[in-house]
Amino acid sequence: MRRKMVAGNWKMHGNLSENKQLLNAIVTSLDGLQGVEFLVCVPYLYLPSVQDTLQNTNIAWGAQNVSQYEKGPYTGEISASMLNDFECRYVIVGHSERRALFGEDSHTVAKKYQAAQRAGITPILCVGETLEQREAGTTEQVIEDQLAAVIKLTGVESLVSAIIAYEPVWAIGTGRTASPEQAQDTHSFIREGIEKQNANIANGLTILYGGSVKASNASELFDMPDIDGGLIGGASLVAVDFVAICRALHQ
Ligand code: PGA
To answer: Each residue of 128-141: b (16+ CB within 10 Å) or e?
Structure first.
């Protein structure tokens, strides 16, 4: 059985009091649900207070980025060992906003993935194509290259303790979700690619879908055989929506 997960990506949203309200509502609604992992990836600064609120609940917390370096003169950066101080079990790496807006190339993403794993933190590796790339018919090539950069650095075995999130860039924050069939096609492409290198790892690998997942479309996406959950942006900021998405996976 593959692990199933719904992960929220708050991006640069929230404040202390809003976060508390949001989390209290989520904690209450998801209390006792088992068999699915729930996670919120929050801005660094809120990790201590989120840790405090979520301690002893069935919701985990994580970060949205991590430095590729262990320590040193890297002003403004946060290392994986610092995330460990706040008991983060997960970190998102290679989100398309980091790649597109902050210049992270696939090699840098691979280094971040490696830095997380070295610290015992599970990376959630984001891959996905832009609209231009999809229309040019290069989706599979783009994703293969993004994955290859990580596998080259850390080996296919490293995927045993990782999660992949397929997030078509054109579906992120646009309200335009990939159809369940489109998402399934890419998820199975990812799994088959890894299967060629190691079938056990491919079978056990959790692959999340992200990009305008909402309460209204979550079930049909999660029903697809290679979609093991979701990485949720906008809808993770609204308690009823996030909870509905979590319940859709739990069924
Ligand atoms: P969205 O974001 O759900 O708002 O489209 C998903 C993401 O960026 O992870």
So the answer is: bbbeebbeeeebee
